[in-house]
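Notebook entry, structure prediction.
Reason for the run: the old model in the group folder had no record of what sequence produced it. Starting over properly, with the input documented here first.
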Amino acid sequence: MPLEPIDLLHLGNERVIGVYLVETPEGPALFDCGPGTCFERLREAVDLREIRHLLLSHIHLDHAGAAGHVVAANPQIRVHVSEVGAPHVVDPSRLIASARRLYGEGLNRLYGEPLPVPKENVEVIWDVAAGLKSFATRGHASHHASYLLDEGTLLAGDATGVRILPGEHVVPHAPPPEVDLEAWNETFDEILRHQPERLALIHFGVVSGMEDVAEHVERTREYLAVWAERVREGMGEEDFVAAARADLEASEGEAGVSAYLRAAPFNQSYLGLERYWRKRRERDAEATAST
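New structure, fully documented this time:
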């Protein structure tokens, strides 16, 4: 059977957040688990008693917010997460505070609050997780990781952007506070070196075929550069959002816009990129002052 996302129907909307049920050398696994607000839908779609591993791409609440709920439902599950992300699934208080700065009063409605994952259930990713090749894919977040299935599918998370298949437009979702353009370009190179045959995207669907995968990655890289340059040159938030929306509508038409905007609000990418350039200017000024 071809790999397909399990649609978590976030807030009743299709094709916004999906997760994947995959086979690993060490048993059945979930790739990401979605937010706490989607846990009942996840439990309806997946027999969590059969799951042995939860492979987290990163700890943002739309990807990992339900991790504590999943472990509570099956305390045998091993939660695989990067070394940077691991403390925040065990104690999500700082994660919640950071998310609340971005989402404000809308946080609980959108994603809920994560439950702590017991420390004994957490396994820090190194080169292998549940028998799968795993490696850092930083850029969207400093703690992002991806996994390569034996049959050639890269469980990509947000490392290669947002694309609501069968749509063609790719959005390099870049929310604060950890966007790193240099690291993200290195990630694109690293993914292409592994020559995956498919990309499993959480937002939303599977890109198939090595040529299509390579084209998708390069489109993500190119559009990230466009967005980054717009912000670097001083484009404000309102104009940035309008330009990004115009690009999306030109590709997908008005009917294709809503799922993209729910999965990757453009104002968040503006805020992430603005912060990246501001912090870089501050570092450059400090380096100049110290010489």
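Summary: The first strand starts at residue 6 and ends at 7.
The old model has been moved to the deprecated folder.
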